[in-house]
Amino acid sequence: MKLHILAVGHKMPGWVESGCQEYLKRMPRELPAAVLEIKPEPRAGGKTREQLMAAERSRIEAVLPKDARLIALDERGDDLTTARFAERIERWMEEGRDLAFVIGGADGLDPAIKSRADGLLRLSSMTLPHAMARLILAEQLYRAASLIKGHPYHRE
C-alpha cells in the first residue's frame, strides 16, 4: 500500500518542502508516501471559480492512482484525533488499496472530486495555508504510521 498526497499548488517554500520530505522519508517501508504537486489553473483570463476548479479537477483525475481510496481534504470533513486517524489508516491497510489524499488549490476542490471521494478529512477547524496543510498531513501520516507500528503516543 502506498500513500499519495496530491496537492494543487505552485512550488512550496523550501521549509515546507524539506519538512514534508523529512516526514515522508521516515515512513516505514510497508507504508511509503510521496507528494505529487499538481499545477494550478492560471487565474488570468477572467475564468470563474467553477472553471478554475474544473480544470484542476481534470489534472487531479489524470494523476489519481488507479483503484486508490480517495480522501479529499475539506473543512467539512471528519475531524479525527491522531489515534483515530491511525486506526482508519490501519483498517484501510487491511484492504491493500493505495490511499490518495487530495489538497485543492486556492479555490478549493471541485465538488465532483468531493462527491466521488471515499471520505472527507479536516485537518483543523482553522483556515490553513495550503503549504501548512501539506506539512501537517505529512506529519500526521508519519505519526499514524508510528502508532500503527506500536510506538508509544505521548498523549496516552
TrEMBL record:
Keywords: Cytoplasm, Methyltransferase, rRNA processing, S-adenosyl-L-methionine, Transferase
SUPFAM superfamilies named among the record's database cross-references: alpha/beta knot
Chain positions recorded as S-adenosyl-L-methionine binding sites: 73, 104, 123-128
Catalytic activity: pseudouridine(1915) in 23S rRNA + S-adenosyl-L-methionine = N(3)-methylpseudouridine(1915) in 23S rRNA + S-adenosyl-L-homocysteine + H(+)
Gene3D superfamilies attached to this UniProt entry: 3.40.1280.10
Record bears the keyword Aminoacyl-tRNA synthetase: no
GO molecular function: rRNA (pseudouridine-N3-)-methyltransferase activity
Cellular component per GO, a single term: cytoplasm
Function recorded in the entry: Specifically methylates the pseudouridine at position 1915 (m3Psi1915) in 23S rRNA.
The protein, known as: Ribosomal RNA large subunit methyltransferase H
Organism: Oryzomicrobium terrae
